[in-house]
Amino acid sequence: MAQQSQVILVTGGAQGIGKGIAAHFLDKGWRVAVFDQDAEAIEACRQQLGNKETLHLIKADVSRESDVASGVAEAVRWGGRLNAVVNNAGLADPDTGPIESLELAQWQRRIDVNLTGAFLMAKHTVPHLRQTRGSIVNMASTRALQSEPDSEAYAATKGGLIALTHALAVSLGPEIRANSISPGWIDVRAWQADAPSEPEPLSASDHGQHPSGRVGTPDDVAAMVAYLISEQARFVTGQNFVIDGGMTRRMIYED
Which residues lie within the region annotated Disordered (predicted)? Predict the structure, then answer.
């Protein structure tokens, strides 16, 4: 079974957008390997998604090459092959305070997880992806394209991911395709490790500020991942896809 089934590896997949992507592919019949460094989130993910034979959870910090190397080897042993990698792991809070008080260690930690983690994953998964003519999807952000104050470290890592993506596409093609996704506001509350049983509904104004009429969901992102790694996207590589309900196209003025 393992040799015939499609296998996807999702980093940061025990909660948030990553968990939504994992759930999507489990529903499609894929074998899903998940990396996450949060042991509590891994256990919560196991309980929420079910202890399926098609789900394999691995505790790993993507900023540590030893974790990546051993985790990738474990995922491939379990799955028998590797068809796609989603580099979703990242430190999500963009606000690091004023640049003049931003400590180098805080800056470096975001670089290490958000950007270096994707590099290490590519380094160690490429030999396996070549065998299957697979795909890499990097999770960037609309903050690579527009910013709020005090988000320099986060924005730099997400902009770097977009550049890393097109560099990988050129270097690894035609055997391997690489694309990135830049999500906007995605409501992940129900997909967190400490998710409330019934999250408070978002307001009409929250939804209404999006030209699409609503805030995004992890399913919106997962659907784009599914397209990008499919045969229908064989002519698509080196691209960044904005999934934000049109927010980056909307002009906003202060009252």
Answer: 196-217
